Amino acid sequence: MDLKSIRKLTLTINSIILLLVFGLAGFFFLCKASFLIWFSIPTTIVYLIGYVLIFKDRLDIYVRLVYFWLTLYMSVSTICLGYKFGFHLYCLSMIPIIFYTEYMAEKLNRSKINAIAVSGIIVTCYLISTGYAAYIGPIYETENGIAGLFWLFNSGIVLFFLIVYSIIMLRMVGSYEKKLTDIAHTDRLTGLYNRHFMMTKLEDSIAAGGEMFVAMLDIDNFKKINDTYGHNAGDYVLETLSKIMRASLDDSEISRWGGEEFLILSDGNAEADGLPKIESLRKSIEEHEFKFEDKEIIVTITAGLAGFHKELSVDQWVKKADDRLYFGKNNGKNRVIIKTDAELAK
Asked: Which of 20, 161, 313, 324 has the fewest C-beta atoms under 10 angstroms from its C-beta?
């Protein structure tokens, strides 16, 4: 969750709490709890100040202010009306939410809140206020029926906040897990699969069966490109080439195998489907205008293809494509090889 989303959520929560304060003030009036009616005035001011702090991007101050006041409000209401009204239940939502808040502050590089210390203060206030109400009794006496209804209402509010923040946390965890998975599976520069993950793809494809082929391709004279134009130019070529491959081979799995080498996995017959497909890619790359800092760079590729046969392991299958690639590299470059001369002679 980014800062904009957090600000939007905080505004919504602040508005909900402010509406609750107005509603509770009316209830306190009916209960003739004069102190709580007057106490609603500074409470309203606190949440109005909250809007200012949110818009000024002072969420750290806002959280500290709101947590202090909520704890005070919970304690005072429990002492005045008794624990049967359920005001003390708010601590059940406050404690997990403060840990969420501390986590988000760390993620956004904001001033952190000591969640353990704050939780300790909330628990202490909870014990004091409920203990007072249990042993001495509430300051204002009300009907048990009203207390029961209000206990249900406060329980519903607490459960609502717990559910909302639990959903948010689950979505955040899912989002971060996806990011970690993407980092583990993809090459940072090109955004393509990395070698490790492509090996898993190859093994899964073999297990699933079916006709398929791999193509190992290499950028011709890549070292010369780096030496002539610099490594930034080399990175530009790798990134641009990856975009061309993704656009041309949207039905295939593509990985950066290492350095300037790429491995492509695709369904179909190597000769009937793979050769025209990779040859078309070769031409697209040859005809593409690679321009870095107003300098035109000539970029071509050489590729070796290998169809899968049941007697091949993953390593043997990839090596077959690799051998054909290096045959092409040693015999003119800028070519797609499906069989070496030695293989043709058999």
From this structure: 313
